[in-house]
Each structure stands twice: as C-alpha cells, then as structure tokens.
Automatic annotation (TrEMBL):
<protein>
    <submittedName>
        <fullName>4'-phosphopantetheinyl transferase</fullName>
    </submittedName>
</protein>
<dbReference type="InterPro" id="IPR003542">
    <property type="entry name" value="Enbac_synth_compD-like"/>
</dbReference>
<dbReference type="Pfam" id="PF01648">
    <property type="entry name" value="ACPS"/>
</dbReference>
<feature type="domain" description="4'-phosphopantetheinyl transferase">
    <location>
        <begin position="101"/>
        <end position="180"/>
    </location>
</feature>
<dbReference type="Pfam" id="PF17837">
    <property type="entry name" value="4PPT_N"/>
</dbReference>
<dbReference type="GO" id="GO:0016740">
    <property type="term" value="F:transferase activity"/>
</dbReference>
<feature type="region of interest" description="Disordered">
    <location>
        <begin position="222"/>
        <end position="242"/>
    </location>
</feature>
<feature type="domain" description="4'-phosphopantetheinyl transferase N-terminal">
    <location>
        <begin position="27"/>
        <end position="94"/>
    </location>
</feature>
<dbReference type="InterPro" id="IPR041354">
    <property type="entry name" value="4PPT_N"/>
</dbReference>
<keyword id="KW-0808">Transferase</keyword>
<dbReference type="InterPro" id="IPR037143">
    <property type="entry name" value="4-PPantetheinyl_Trfase_dom_sf"/>
</dbReference>
<dbReference type="InterPro" id="IPR008278">
    <property type="entry name" value="4-PPantetheinyl_Trfase_dom"/>
</dbReference>
Amino acid sequence: MIKSILPDFVAAADVFTDPPDPMLFPEEEQVIVHADDRRRQEFSTARVCAHDALRKLGVRPSPVLPGLRGEPQWPTGVVGSITHCAGYRGAVVAAASKVTAIGIDAEPNEPLVPGVLDAISLPEERESLAKLGARNTRVQWDRMLFSAKESVFKAWFPLAKRWIDFQDILINVDPANGDFTAWLRVGGPRVRGQRITAFSGRWVVDAGLVLTAVVLPTPGRTGSLQQGIRRAPVYGRPPNGM
C-alpha cells in the first residue's frame, strides 16, 4: 500500500500480519533477544519487509541493524526507511545514486490522544486542520500531521545527524492531490552544497491507516520525480512569517 505514494525508483514491501516464523539474520536476532513479544513482532516483521524490499531493488539482503538513535542501517549505496504500527509493517529502499533521503510513517486513522496535537503542532497548522476537518471528516487530520512530521524526521536525521522538534517543522497540506510540503524552521543540512529548507511528501488514507512518505531525490535527478511524486525538494525560501 505504501508503494502508491512513492516514485517508481523506490522499492517497497509491506504486510498487514506478522508471519509465524520470520527469518532473521543472527545479528538481527541478537537485537531482540531480551525484547517483549510486541517489540519482537514489530522488529522481526519490519526486517522481513526490509529484506524483501532489498531483493526488489536488486540488492542481496543483509542485516538491517539499528543505529545509535534506532535508525536502520542500510547496505552501502542504499537509503531506506521502516515503519510499523498496529496491523501494519512496511519498509522502502532506493539506490543512493537516485535518492538522498527517504522517510515513511504509518499510523491508525484515529484521532490523537488529547493534548498531543498542541504539543506537536503550530498555531497555523491547527487552524488549517480545523478547516480541513470541516470539509473532510474521513481523514483524521491531526494524525496525518503527526505522521507527516514523523516521515520528515526519518528523512532528516540521516542527513543532519541531530534531532529536530515537531514544532521546528511547518506542514502545508494539499488535500486535493495528496501532497504536503514540510518547511523547516531551523537551518537544514546541505546536500552537495545546497541548503535544504523543506521536504516534499505524499500521503494516503486507506484500510484504516494514514500513510505518509518523504523522498528527497539526489541532486541532478529531480526530473525523475514525475515517476510517481508530484513535487521536487525545495531549496528556496520558506513562506512569509517563517
């Protein structure tokens, strides 16, 4: 399902149930040797998806271990992202020659717990969500906002190597085309000499889930964005007031 919001040059694998006997590499098994059942299922099935996505990309699967901050460590020449929530696991990968960073996130299409929206959002975002909710009640827009910011963080962290707060990201949602732009309110990392000021992403609501994806093409490859992603990464100025 995540593939529907990704360009053709990104390989994806996702599932809605946990396999009874997932096959992991010994190094991956060691990561969850003391984990509880829930963590074991999430980690194991997500790694099965990661291995499958690597095969689809034409890369021999290898252990996908967590980094110092929990981020997945991919084989040389590969970038990717993993997500899991109740009833869903997914992984996506792409060649680093085509994609510099990628982030995906899956969430239940349910309202956030009271108080969470205020903690993760900006006043202008809450105003925008109220307008969106008045026009379309099928989408839990607060959850979509949360998911979009999670996807941005997953794309951001491997580049910047530092945390970014929820309120350091301003999301502008396009409800008609299933797009969003995430403007950074802090200095972004440089990619081949270009300062990143925003990320472009896509979203979809289906099967009781909200899925979001951010793909940052490698500079010089932006023409390939026509293959399934509508907007190029933004290197210009943020909106007024940022």
